[in-house]
């Protein structure tokens, strides 16, 4: 939710800046600043609004800034929260932009109750746990739900085959996002040169 609020605030501030220049009749500066303000608005939406993770019966869909990953349950080998929630598969590791691990402040605020009953795969050697596994953090909340579902499927024998079909992990590149950001960045640079 914080990311979406931040993206909305950035877009609104950029629009207010453009509106202020239009009301003032400063058309030269308006034409020069429309490109960078549009770029920062689009970047804020791509980085803070769009990323998400969807969990369903077939697997997990991770929507990041430039790519979407469709991961079937049998392809998930491990779920980690070191820097952000990360899914490990036989083909690659997939960071989840929508679920970052806490910083130092967030790690200090974690209480014992936040790291109890997380599921067996959350705990390391000596029952140690990472700050990102705490259910009071974004990464920990998503990891908790993912692990519960993944462990239940494993314990029920649905992941026993160990066979992951080649190509079952689907990756979609967000070409439109890349084109929009690239075009706006090029317009920004061109506007600074002129």
Describe the structure.
The chain folds into 2 domains: 2-49 and 175-193; 52-163, no CATH class. Helix content is 45%, strand content 18%. The protein has 5 helices and 7 strands. The strands form 2 sheets. Strands 1-2-3-7 form a 4-stranded antiparallel beta sheet, with no helix packed on it. Strands 4-5-6 form a 3-stranded antiparallel beta sheet, covered by helices on one side. α2 packs antiparallel against α5. It starts with a helix and ends with a helix. Keywords: Membrane, Transmembrane, Transmembrane helix.
Following the backbone from N to C, one meets helices and strands in this order, namely HHEEEEEEHHEH
Helix share bin: 40-55%
Task: Say what oligomer this is.
Answer: single chain
**Whole-angstrom Rg:** 21 Å
Number of helices in the DSSP assignment: 5
Task: Choose one word for the global shape.
Answer: elongated
